[in-house]
Design brief:
Helix content is 54%, strand content 16%. It is of the alpha+beta class and 458 residues long. The protein binds adenosine-5'-diphosphate.
Length: 458
């Protein structure tokens, strides 16, 4: 049974055969317990009628009378007192009968061979053409008592019906089998298609068109499969884009480091020039180091690294951030305003520290000297909100949708010279999502930006 097709066919056949066996056993038991006694009664009634009809018209010999009524669908076995016997109608398959039973009928009793006929699970006995499977009644003729055994001639009575039922049964089985053969193909076909599609995906071919027009489980599976292959394709594209961005971001500082170190090797450089180039080399290598650190952070966040969730006061954490970044805002003469009420949140303090640090550093970095950065934190029934607002350069509307994408920088030429990688906000978004929170940005170019982080209550 290597294929699903064979498995379904064999299972269906086993089910059909098992059902037939069970159905036969149940209906056979029904026959044995309810129909057989009724049948016995019916034949007893007929046997007694024959006896009384003969009694009323016994001007003809009994053998001639019995021969005449065999045409009505009954067969007879007549036994005389002296043991001689004669059969009328088609011969019995087995003429075995207890002598005591014959003697009892000759003595005036009725023999109920049909009701007492032994039964076996798969043999009804209804069609058994045995002398033991008859009704015996005493009958008077020529001044002596005979034992008359009667049973229906099933071949005569049900011959055509038996053929009809046999044809019905055989055709039902044959057609069921053919239908199963055909319908199984329809069930298995889309699965074969899915298997082919899986192989294609494994080989890296995501452009799939599964034309499975079904609305059942297999249709839904095909639908989900197509969605999965689309999402795999998008992921693959994103991965390639990411790899090329990473290579590009690494390549450009490396090129400038190489270029400046070559220049430094030239001897006719003033001390001032030399220190200028060294400063650039130092800045670029710092950028490279930051880049690799942020890439590591992103990859650990992507692999859903363990979070250490605990309740703590985010206001305290934000105050600490303001303290840590003091030299940056003091250097740029930026005013810091705070509105921090004690706000307990449940989160990973180390990860959220990076979020606040990125947002506050960005606010300082993209705000001109003399500007203001405002940091607010408050909580309500639904959760906590942290807002970082600046009076900086702002962001044009068209950049907002991509702002949180990896390596996205609004103004590459401007930010390239600064400590900037374009990864900060994507890390922020990832961490907030890991906390089931949300981040929103509102910005007016030339007036400033507001980043609002909402964290759920639990
Ligand atoms: P970067 O390392 O370049 O700061 P981010 O992901 O943190 O990377 O930010 C992406 C881009 O969003 C930045 O290059 C910058 O152009 C813009 N940006 C972020 N924060 C601000 C802000 N507070 N004001 C203006 N622009 C901002």
């Amino acid at each position: 049974m290597r294929t699903l097709y064979m498995r379904i066919i064999v299972t269906t056949m086993v089910i059909m055969i098992t059902s037939a066996i069970i159905a036969f056993a149940v209906s056979n038991s029904y026959y044995q317990f309810y129909l057989k006694p009724e049948h016995d009664q019916k034949v007893t009634h007929i046997a007694k009628n024959i006896e009384s009809i003969y009694k009323a018209n016994n001007n003809q010999p009994l053998p001639a009378f019995l021969t005449a009524i065999t045409d009505l669908g009954y067969k007879f076995h007549l036994v005389q007192q002296n043991g001689e016997s004669q059969t009328f109608g088609e011969a019995f398959s087995s003429s075995k009968i207890e002598q005591a039973d014959i003697a009892a009928v000759l003595g005036g009793e009725t023999y109920h061979g049909i009701a007492n006929y032994p039964w076996r699970p798969f043999i009804t006995g209804f069609f058994d053409n045995d002398l033991a499977n008859t009704i015996g009644v005493p009958i008077q003729a020529d001044g002596q008592t005979y034992a008359l055994f009667v049973r229906p001639d099933t071949t005569q009575q049900f011959g055509e019906m038996r053929i009809f039922l046999a044809i019905l049964l055989v055709l039902t089985l044959l057609f069921s089998f053919l239908m199963v053969l055909i319908s199984t193909r329809f069930v298995v076909k889309p699965i074969k298609k899915l298997t082919e599609a899986t192989k294609k995906i494994a080989a890296g071919n995501y452009h799939l068109k599964l034309d499975v027009n079904r609305h059942d489980e297999i249709g839904r599976l095909a639908n989900d499969f197509t969605k999965m292959s689309d999402s795999l394709e998008r992921n693959e594209e994103k991965r390639q884009e990411f790899v090329s961005s990473v290579s590009h971001e690494i390549q450009s500082p490396l090129t400038s480091i190489q270029g400046f170190s070559r220049t430094l090797r030239e001897e006719n450089l003033s001390e001032e020039e030399r220190s200028h180039y060294l400063a650039i080399i130092e800045k670029e290598s710092k950028r490279l180091s930051l880049l690799s650190k942020q890439l590591l952070t992103l990859s650990s966040l992507d692999s859903e690294a363990e979070k250490e969730m605990l309740p703590y006061d985010v206001a305290d954490q934000l105050k600490e951030i303001i303290h840590t970044t003091e030299w940056q805002w003091r250097e740029k003469e930026i005013a810091i305003e705070i509105d921090l009420s004690p706000t307990t949140i449940i989160g990973d303090p180390k990860l959220l520290q990076q979020v606040w640090m990125n947002l506050v550093e960005n606010a300082i970095r993209y705000t001109d000297p003399g500007g203001t950065v405002t940091i607010r934190a408050f909580g309500d029934k639904t959760g906590a909100q942290v807002i970082v607002e600046d009076t900086g350069i702002g962001i044009e509307k068209e950049h907002l949708p991509q702002l949180f994408d990896r390596f996205y920088m609004v103004d590459k030429s401007r930010t390239r010279t600064k400590k900037s990688t374009g990864l900060g906000l994507s890390i922020v978004k990832k961490i907030i999502e890991l906390h089931r929170g949300a981040i929103m940005v509102d910005s007016v170019p030339g007036r400033g930006s507001t980043f609002t982080v909402s964290l759920p209550d639990k």
